[in-house]
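Notes continue from the previous slide.

Worked example: a multi-chain complex. Inputs as given:
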Amino acid sequence: MGNKTLALCRTAPYGSALAREGLEAVLASAAMEQEVDLLFIGDGIFQLLGNQSPEEIQQKSQRRNLLALPMFGLEQFYVCASSLAERGVKPKLIEIPGVEIKTIEQPGALIASYQCVLSF
Amino acid sequence: MTLHLVSKSPFSSSALRDCLQSFAEGDALLLIEDGVYALRHDALQTLQNSAVYCLEADAAARGQRELAAIVSGIKMIDDAGWVKLCTQHNPIVSWFR
Amino acid sequence: MNHLSANGKEIPLDKEGYLRDLKDWSPDVAEQLAAAEGIKLTDAHWEVIELLQDFYRQFDLSPAMRPLVKFIGQHLGADKGRSIYLMQLFPPSPAKVASKIAGLPKPTNCL
């Protein structure tokens, strides 16, 4: 994985600006042809859930923005298996067209394989 | 090997718990700021075979320096020690909430 | 230019010439926004504008250059999904200029 960066997405959307800021950083990096991988872990997996309708709280849909990532060349997401299980989220609920979801049993080993990790 | 920085109290934040979930063998943990209250938390027991460091100034400020001295396996470091850890590990992951 | 008028209505623009309210957009407004950029809209422009608006509806964001090129390529074919083609239609910065004419916000991750 060489000099790739990992974006650690560990917060739920809307409750704070972190999830959005992480996505903006990933989009900006991808637009500049910098390779970034994403690992959704902890409450970060809530960013992937379908049926997000945040219009009434004047926010943009985090999931709809994530759906754009294949257009930016990002076609694979890592997701922590135990975070899904702990929250009762079935992998089926977080499918994204054009993206391969790879569930990870050992997030520590994945993290250790990167040079740079950004946490959001 | 990853250097994990935890800066929130384990009694009010999931930072330590989330960090331990992503802790690989050979990784190191550094407790800073309110993260030093992890010295009082049972979860730290699971790291008995790993390198655990604590920033002395932050522990001292919070009245935890004496405790750190008796919790086994904790190494107290200063800012220069922190810098050294950063040069010895890659990547560095900050668990700041 | 801080506003333009269309259908007898004053339409406010921000200081870079983007629509303040995306609901103000109409083809007539697009023609005027294009004219301000020195562009006369042809069918080739319109098919890109419509796709940009599709992109925004689908993903809730204005695309930077790279995703725009990929999206156009997927829908209009490889010969149009090229930056040089979009550069000819919407100079000098296709993602920004085309977003403006399509009535979308400025692409946030476009430097």
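Summary box: The radius of gyration of chain C is 13 Å. The interface with chain A takes residues 55, 58-61, 63-67, 70-71, 108-111 of chain C (CB under 8 Å).
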